[in-house]
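worker-03 picked up job from queue 'complexes'. Input manifest follows; two sequence lines, order preserved.
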Amino acid sequence: MNTFDPKSIRSDFPVLSRRVNGRPLVYLDNAATTLKPQTVISAEMDYYQNFTSNIHRGVHTLSEEATDRYEAVREKARAFLNAHRSEQVIFTKGATEAINLVASAYGEAFLKAGDEIIISEMEHHSNIVPWQLLCERKGCVLKVAPMNDRGEIIFSEFQKLLNEKTRFVSLVYISNSLGTINPVKKLIKEAHKYEVPVLLDAAQAVNHFAVDVHDLNCDFLVFSGHKLFGPTGVGVLYGKKELLEAMPPYQGGGDMIASVTFKKTTFNTLPYKFEAGTPHIAGVIGLGAALDYVKEIGFEAISKYEQDLLEYGTEKLLTIDGLSLIGTASQKAAILSFTLPGIHPHDIGTIVNKEGIAIRTGHHCTQPVMAHFQIPATSRASLAFYNTYDEIDQLVSALKTVKTIFA
Amino acid sequence: MPDINELYQQTIIEHHKKPRNFGKLEHYTHHAEGYNPLCGDHLHVYLRVGADQIIQDVSFEGDGCAISRSSASLMTESLKGKPLNTAKELFNEFHDMLLKKLDPAKDPHHLGKLSIFAGIWQYPSRVKCASLSWHTMTGALEQKESVSTE
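worker-03 finished. Artifact:
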């Protein structure tokens, strides 16, 4: 596709024709979940309507079709991440489960009392709590790399935390509440000087630009399908082969075994060792359609358009008297978190919703970020490539209404 | 959906900006902390109840949205000087109104100014904002240290 046309793209998303409170829906909550194109909805439905069956065991036609379609998505995800081999792609129910998988399986096998784990101050709760639970179980120590007031990890502080006791680093690629794009390649390189593996939480990154695990040289990477225009309940864990192979299983059950007797069970090979039980087959197939969809539009066009929208949105929001942007990193994705003095974000959210505008208000599952800025919550407009300049104008106009009500 | 100004009436905005009975009460007999983990609203309610079971004084402090702050402010106004039984009765009526079980326009009630929250059932995600201070007050009277809406 040579020219990027948001108008024609919008027609791919059925829910965008909805009206909310009598007004056309303005969906600015893409960091919570993205909308789904018709192709994703149809792909899931296709499985249920035409080849419902379980995978990896049947010899009948439907099962073979479902298995082929399911495994084809693994290959698509491999290509999407530029991973070496498709068995490095493990399907999970989302980014959260993928982090828990690594914290449990890698943590149980390779971390011991006194070992240090580094995260950052801007992590989502899903990249804090699994490590805290691990620390409680094993006596490890959680270290937090601080950020500055623009919402950027302070590199020298991160360097200081790394030492011979550091055994794991887990970092967010893009902050969901600040929009910061972290210099992860540089941070990974630094951690590798101490031979410490690094997990990247790419939940907010995969929908904005191409993510290349080979180039980043990350050891693990996780993302959720529903933040990439795919279904809820499905996500991906990528891992380096030698690490995944060395890790014990996360859950036991069907499909993850080679043989079972009451005396001894031997485990299946990658990736099946980590996919116990019947997976979300329809969700994985839907994710495949989402990967096809973004590939067709192309990340070059997506990134450029979103950066233009971000620049426009930043400029327009700052015309509102008293508005403060929370998160002003030099490298940002199209996420605009803000506060208005004396007006609680929940009041802002309710009032703009009356005009059909969906934004997120609250702590965004990043309470330490709120603590850093000494605020209880923010309002957040998070953009996708189907959003328009006109929608940003509508948000600005609705925020002016909010100010009038509270004047 | 009703007009947004029906929810954000002048009284609500005014009590939000200048909450009555705001701050920690000296010589309180009852206290509880209320928390809505969903939105981070957080407040304390203090009461001084006499031997005659009359609420001699009541106050609140904390952070929150306009709905939760104005509701807390109006609650303290309506409870001051009232017997405990009346406080419980008001809680029940207020609660029923938030859940649309009581319509102040038709049903008998003693809510007075509190009836400005009558339309809130139309905003389900905001009902807890209006009820937080009342649950916290009830918790304080029942000797609970903290109250959560979840």
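worker-03 released lock.
The radius of gyration of chain A is 22 Å.
The longest helix of chain A spans residues 61-81.
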